[in-house]
UniProtKB/TrEMBL annotation:
Listed name of the protein: U32 family peptidase
PANTHER family reported for this sequence: PEPTIDASE U32 FAMILY, TRNA HYDROXYLATION PROTEIN P2
Any Pfam family the entry gives: Peptidase_U32
Organism: Candidatus Coprosoma intestinipullorum
Amino acid sequence: MSKITAIINDLEEAKEINDLVDAYIMPLTGLSINYRHTFSLEEIEEALKLDREIFVSVNKNIHNDELPKLKEALTKLTKLKISGIIFYDISIVNLKKKMNFKTPLVWAQEHLTTNYGTVNYWNEKGAQYAYLSSELTKREILEIKENSKSKLFVNIFGYLPMFTSRRHLVKNYVETFDIKENDRQAKLSKEGNDYLIEDTKLGTTVYSSYILNATEEDFKNVDYLVFNSNFIETKDFKEVLTDYKNKKPNKYPKNLGFMFEDTIYKVK
């Protein structure tokens, strides 16, 4: 049976929805991207008291000068009883061997986690889980599940990060055009769609113009189904989880993203 997994805004939200979920994804402050809210080691330790599986995201590209910080964080994380570490940079795979820690790894390289061959490769390298790309169709997701050795994470609800830049695109724009309002959140309007943008210390992330809402699809064989609360109020997020638990449609439009549409892009 699938485990309901939530990406949360804060610990208070976790307490509100705790009876509705099996696991949490908590991005580590300073070492994670594509999340609106991040958590300190102390907050992660506090979340363990909720008696749910905790997966900590350490999913940014790691530069040489950040390796000491990463090693220190891994040393502390692996002393906690977390269920896994979500990684992008393969330095974490190498550090697991060197540091000999037992905490499971979740391979999550965004748009690269698209086939069971590579999922199985990283499984052999020590990643017992894989977080699949949101550009996959439902058919491809189920094919990977059938042919892979790893436990899988799949997004089924929430705004999706489309791309990230290390540059501060919003800040640069505001400064270039001398705009007084300098909010970390902005909006890009293009071809009739509004895309939410976040500019943080680690760069800029652009999110989808829609909320992925595949909660009515049957993914019972997938290990972890991910609900993302970014940009969504706690009250509304709790309603979505409650509706899912009660096998009811939620109030949001049924937008399935690429679930039934092959991802084919052509340069114009």
